[in-house]
Amino acid sequence: MTARIIDGKAIAAELRARVAAEVIRVKQDHALTPGLAVVLVGNDPASEVYVRSKHTQTQAAGMASFEHKLPADVSQADLLALIARLNRDPLVHGILVQLPLPKSLHTETIIHAIDPAKDVDGLHPHNAGRLAGGLAALSPCTPLGCIILTKSVHPSLEGMNAIVIGRSNLVGRPLVQLLLNENATVTIAHSRSRDLAKLCAQADLVYAAVGKPEMVRGDWLKPGATVIDVGINRIPVEGGKPKLVGDVAFQEAVKVAGAITPVPGGVGQMTVACLLVNTLRAACAIHG
Ligand code: GUN
Q1: Distance from the CA of 202 to the center of ligand 1, in angstroms?
Q2: Can you tell me the ipTM of this complex?
Q3: Molecular function (GO) terms listed (predicted)?
């Protein structure tokens, strides 16, 4: 058996097209142009690539995109002043501070300074708490993308056994809450969990978000399971370009799983598409 490959690229393109159509409607009916401000501190090459992609896709969806590039040695006070300005700016409905920040800045303080109504990353404790309480909230984009990809295979997740490997604030923890909201039964695993293979063997849905290349092996999986690989790991190749691999050993897993996301071409593109969804939602909610 070979797993069905979940085409994240196509599903993300479809979602972006739906957002673009809705943006046309809110512009016409409400004279509202959703606006996203992205703040990049320093010049980490991977972050620069992500921010450029966010900028291009925001504009392609018909939204306003505001880029703020700050030097790596910006003071915490100056960054907080920028966030305060963006909080007040009526043209800005979503604010995203690209992570990771340089070590000299206190990430928690910065995230907490963002107006929760504009927190399109869903990282402010107001939104994280609402999500944990089962209330409507702006939710982190990558976990939202994981749920959409899963639902392309299983429209209802009710009663399914899911395992989330990884407990980061950006992916693992919010993903657990979103799965609970879908009435899945969720096991939360992480780097200190014992016998991950045994835990995975029970799971209809496997989410790998640990940042360890090819850690989840094919023989851990329940035959027919749906596997969503959040990992993006760059492996050096002698004399060539680095190879991108996920947290799942794809060539093994594809022989056992029922459906699986590739890396690249799986979860990656969904993150920005869901950021556009969140920006549109935030704009409509702020506008009333
Ligand atoms: N760095 C990598 N992924 C993300 C993300 O989803 N949001 C932010 N703010 N930074 C990131």
Answers
A1: 31
A2: 0.94
A3: methenyltetrahydrofolate cyclohydrolase activity; methylenetetrahydrofolate dehydrogenase (NADP+) activity
